[in-house]
């Protein structure tokens, strides 16, 4: 249960406890040749023969994978920064009225992390621009007197707080 509640943000200056799945690393070790060749040919668009240090890189990766498999419980400062924004993503789309492209090329699809048999991510959708156009006023914000700038800024912040936080905070201005 604790893993489900754990924050998914790692910093390189804070030691973190990791419990790795040794079987997953064993599978990576078993498929290392296949995965490296795929990365070179498909993602890198290169011939395998053009890679001069293939065995050296392979042995370096293999050594690290074996060490991770053999010591699955570890405490170390991570080198990977990861912030899971999956739950935030739909809100960003709705808030900013963004519409991601739904049609990608075969090359992009092949290189995607989610490209697996039975994938359902390639839905052909028609996207419509839903932006709004506001005509510029005669006078810019910076041309207004300082007091009017502060008043408008305060009004705008108050409206934002009402929308974002569903409440209004009125604090005295000093």
TrEMBL record:
Reaction equation(s) it catalyzes: DNA(n) + a 2'-deoxyribonucleoside 5'-triphosphate = DNA(n+1) + diphosphate
GO molecular function: 4 iron, 4 sulfur cluster binding; DNA binding; DNA-directed DNA polymerase activity; single-stranded DNA 3'-5' DNA exonuclease activity; zinc ion binding
Organism, as annotated: Rubus argutus (Southern blackberry)
EC numbers for this chain: 2.7.7.7
Name this protein carries in UniProt: DNA polymerase epsilon catalytic subunit
Iron-sulfur as UniProt keyword: yes
InterPro entries: DNA/RNA_pol_sf, POL2
Keyword Secreted: no
Cofactor (UniProt): [4Fe-4S] cluster
Domain of life the protein comes from: Eukaryota
Homology family: Belongs to the DNA polymerase type-B family.
Gene Ontology BP term (one): mitotic cell cycle
Its biological purpose: DNA polymerase II participates in chromosomal DNA replication.
Keywords, sorted A to Z: 4Fe-4S, DNA replication, DNA-binding, DNA-directed DNA polymerase, Iron, Iron-sulfur, Metal-binding, Nucleotidyltransferase, Nucleus, Transferase, Zinc, Zinc-finger
GO cellular component, one term: epsilon DNA polymerase complex
Major location category of this protein: nucleus
């Amino acid at each position: 249960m604790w893993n489900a509640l754990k924050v998914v943000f790692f910093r390189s200056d804070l030691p973190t406890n990791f419990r790795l799945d040794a079987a997953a690393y064993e599978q990576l070790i078993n498929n290392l040749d296949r995965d490296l060749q795929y990365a070179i040919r498909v993602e890198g668009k290169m011939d395998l023969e053009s890679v001069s240090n293939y065995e050296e890189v392979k042995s370096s990766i293999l050594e690290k994978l074996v060490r991770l498999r053999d010591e699955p419980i570890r405490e170390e400062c991570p080198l990977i920064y990861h912030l899971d924004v999956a739950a935030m993503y739909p809100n960003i789309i709705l808030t900013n009225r963004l519409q991601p492209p739904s049609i990608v090329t075969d090359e992009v699809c092949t290189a995607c992390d989610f490209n697996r048999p039975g994938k359902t991510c390639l839905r052909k959708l028609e996207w419509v621009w839903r932006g709004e156009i506001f005509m510029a006023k005669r006078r810019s914000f910076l041309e207004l007197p300082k007091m009017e700038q502060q008043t408008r800024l305060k009004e705008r912040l108050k409206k934002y707080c009402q929308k974002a936080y569903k409440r209004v905070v009125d604090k005295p201005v000093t």
